[in-house]
Write a structure and sequence with these properties.
- By secondary structure, the protein is α+β, with helices and mostly antiparallel strands.
- 21% of the residues lie in helices and 26% in strands.
Length: 132
């Protein structure tokens, strides 16, 4: 059995263990994040690079620790596509579930794009000119 060459807890003044623990903490936070896929594997990798001097009596050691995390899940919605009065393509997120359908959000009646029907009606009525 060979002698232990290094103790990672003490190597580089304990910085290797600190780096390893920091990357492990990132992985654990990523696993706990409900916006990531629980099935995706995460990794913590440690690479030790040794560069010898010309006389080969001394080596500079660089330790890199990195983690590979699961990406956040994509967010899906629907967008209605139409043309404005000038013929330009325009889009708006569909909020009601069905184009042209209004819905109640708990406070207001909203258009299919989420605009307040009351605000639209008030804006339109303020444009009406009354003659006496």
């Amino acid at each position: 059995m060979q002698n232990q060459m290094i103790n990672l807890d003490n190597f580089a003044g304990g910085a290797v263990t600190e780096k390893l623990n920091a990357e492990l903490q990132k992985v654990l936070a990523n696993i706990a994040d409900p916006n990531t896929d629980h099935k995706k594997a995460r990794k913590v990798s440690m690479t030790m690079t040794l560069k010898a001097n010309e006389s080969r009596g001394l080596a500079t050691v660089t330790v890199d620790v990195k983690s590979t995390l699961a990406p956040s899940k994509g967010v899906e919605t629907q967008m209605m596509i139409d043309f404005d009065s000038k013929g330009n393509v325009v889009g708006a997120e569909l909020k009601s579930g069905i184009p042209g359908q209004t819905y109640f959000d708990g406070e207001d009646i909203k258009t299919d794009t989420g605009e307040s029907v009351e605000k639209i009606e008030n804006a339109q009525s303020s444009k009406v000119v009354q003659f006496k």
